Amino acid sequence: MTRRKPIATGSDWNFEVLEAYERELACLADEYRLDTYPNQIEIITTEQMMDAYASVGMPVGYHHWSFGKQFLAVEQAYRRGQMGLAYELVINSDPCIAYLMEENTLMMQVLVMAHACYGHNSFFKGNYLFRTWTDASSIVDYLVFARKYVADCEQRHGVTAVEQLLDACHALQNYGVDRYKRPSPISAEEEARRQTEREEYLQAQVNMLWRTIPERPVGEALPGSLDDGEDPLGLRGGGRYPPEPQENLLYFIEKNAPLLAPWQREIVRIVRKLAQYFYPQRQTQVMNEGWASFWHYTLMHRLYDDGLVDEGLILEFLQSHTAVVNQPAFDSPFYSGINPYALGFAMFSDIKRMCEAPTEEDREWFPDTAGGDWLEAVHFAMRNFKDESFIQQFLSPKVIRDLKLFTIVDDDQDEMLEVTAIHDERGYRRVRDALATQYALSVREPNIQVHAADIRGDRSLTLHHVQDSRRPLGRSVYPVLRHLHQLWGFPVRMESIMDDDSLGRRIQWPIPDEETK
Amino acid sequence: MTYFIDRRANAKHKSAVNRQRFLDRYRTHIKRSVEEAVNRRSITDMERGEKVSIPARDISEPVFQHGPGGKRTIVSPGNKEFVEGDRLRRPGGGGGGGAGEGGASNQGEGMDEFAFSLTREEFLDFVFDGLELPHLERKALVDLDEVRPVRAGVSRDGVPARINIVRSMREAYARRIAMRAPIRRALREAVEALEVEESKDPVLRNPSRIAELKAEIERLEKRLEAVPFIDTYDLRYNNLVNQPQPSSKAVMFCVMDVSGSMTQAHKDIAKRFFLLLYLFLERNYEKVELVFVRHHTAAKEVDEEEFFYSRETGGTIVSSALTLVDEIITDRYPPGQWNLYVAQASDGDNWDDDSVTCREQLMKSLMPRLQYYTYVEITPHAHQALWEEYESVADEFPDRFAMRQIVEAGDIYPVFRELFKRRAAH
């Protein structure tokens, strides 16, 4: 390969230089079969970066105090020098929007382009979770719609009313996703057109469900007695409602809460849709960052090998890269959990290594991958897994040894902690299982479902918390139930189902009188 | 396909609304911090923002979470000496939790407090929240000398610098259309007549008529060309008229007794009071000037440094200062152009017969010209003659004359708030 002249040297950048590097990266990405959305690269200032940060990376968002709080926290940490701003932020949209901060050096800008515009971008486009659950082409439009809708509601119903509703929805937003069903695509135009229609329809549905609310003159008929023809939901059948437990709490609220006004249902829906949009990101942190780091590493080295960047730049890059993928040990003062960049980068690099220089161990553990085409192998891994299954499938003994992973069991019935597996022959599989479980959302978050809505009685709502390994709910259950109560409008109950299926603790909001006395 | 977009010029404060919402929501918390800060801070320190802490539990956004307890398996990196089956004591003695329980809570400093900074503007907003300047309904427009030119349509005359080009060209265009229309019509008729004449059989043509028509056409075309493209009466000028303006200038007189009885502690208290008032005025007027007048038996206009830090001894004659203020107003600050404020600080001592003179001076010449007069008496002792005389002034001008007693530094801010608290419209 002929070595070419560096496109630029030093740490200053300008648009021509960035464009030139971007073109080179695009050629290389093509060579590595990275399929991406078009890139929209935006140069912004520090302050704008903090803005973007505060709104969880959404380019437009509705107004809410919690974003202000986020902004203040980011600003404070940044001013005190506690935290360097992440030098990149990328949005899963089509075109894929990536931010470059103006005070970054040339190296940083090239690194961020490699990392975000080709790493993350191709992940967004290729990974099955994103393909199934999000609509990159319509998200920005939908955000614009949401912002306008919320602003209109603030005008009509007052800022406080909207704020309280959003508070309540935010508390439940992790339970506002469909885990197994593909959501219908969202489109701003469609939303706006269908929105009025939906308001009427929804209200009609709810009215049907709550027809049992006694509004007829006293003595005419008992509440709950419907004519035969008027009972499409089988209310008189006496079965539980909903017939199946519902895991999407916000969806259930949107469709069934008896007292919400149509605009309130619409806002619940907006929060739910956005939660759904972020759902894949929450499940692919290790993979997504690992993939992007793997590619910025590969692409930067290619640029250097081709002579397009000089030694100074590649050294600066290596220093920065090393800091990003550094994994402090559990007893280090800098330890704050497993670094997803470090783990993901180690795993993708390891897949490449297995293909190029397989050992006996690799052939035994990964007969399908070892010695194969590395590019094919990493693309396959990127496309078809989420963190949980990715670790289960690809965490090799070598990575476990390199990171010196070990498992500890913390059991409140045992006075001591116990080390149950380390990086040895007996421990590999157990470490791998435990780490995969640690990344499973279903384990990270308590399992909570709507069990029953008492539509014939006191209209109370009962949730079930299915305990896992005897882990109870944290104290935050009270404020969250209070929020849920605001949405539902009638008493809300939370019942814990213990590991042996017996009924455990029961919490109710509002707290019944006899308990407060 | 890649686009680069330079967004640096875009609006910066995208989060401003959210930030404001947050501040509004936690108003009471923040106000408490601000009040503490005002009392704690040194005098020169008012001009910066403030760090505010709010208990984290008050602003948490709750979600369902696992509580401590139960059985969990934690994977951690960096094993050094453990082997399988090792049993360890729990770190810190707490039940459960431990390492690996979510990154967020382990990061950074203690999470019991949510700390952030207010900007200077926000800080002062909170400091002066709910306060207003009495008599801010500024002076009646008639006795104002201050004017500002404002646009008032267009006029037919003016100076060349103010030509309104668009309007002038439009006028010219309209005039040209109007002036050319009859000529064009005549021309068209002549041309048509000529064509009719020329299309006739050569025998029937009237050569003299043709010549006549041709001459007519030529004459009309000349006239058409002679219509000027632009003419003096097309010109239009942007018209400016002078509008009287409410005054945006204020002058604040700081009057302080520097006689022997005023200690440095007294002066510090006075200084804080003056500073608060100055900051407050500064937020309401574009321009605020300060005049420092100090007095013992004689009054003198001095600069800030001398005002606060030089020491004098001797007796006290307050009226000397009031006379000086009166003279300065007459000389330099005509009430038509300036909003006048006087803040006086003293320990209440005065020469025996002088207090009556003070009252008369205030009633007759000063008060009618002033926006507001505040008097603070810094003393833990009983009031003397001056206070009593001033009370009668306060009765006469209840809206514009205010007086309070300050005993210690902690009183300054409450007293200030009381002096300027928003009054119900009367």
TrEMBL record, chain A:
Per the record, the domain of life is Bacteria
Q: Which Pfam families match?
A: SpoVR, SpoVR_C
Question: Where is each SpoVR-like C-terminal domain found?
Answer: 446-497
Residue intervals of the SpoVR protein-like N-terminal domain: 12-442
Please name the PANTHER family in this protein's record.
STAGE V SPORULATION PROTEIN R
Q: What is this protein called?
A: SpoVR family protein
Automatic annotation (TrEMBL), chain B:
Q: Which family does it belong to?
A: Belongs to the UPF0229 family.
* Positions of the UniProt region annotated as Disordered: 60-110
Task: Name the domain of life.
Answer: Bacteria
Q: What is this protein called?
A: UPF0229 protein DU505_16330
Q: Where is the composition biased (Gly residues)?
A: 91-105
InterPro entries membership: UPF0229
NCBIfam families found in the cross-reference section: PRK05325.1-2, PRK05325.1-3
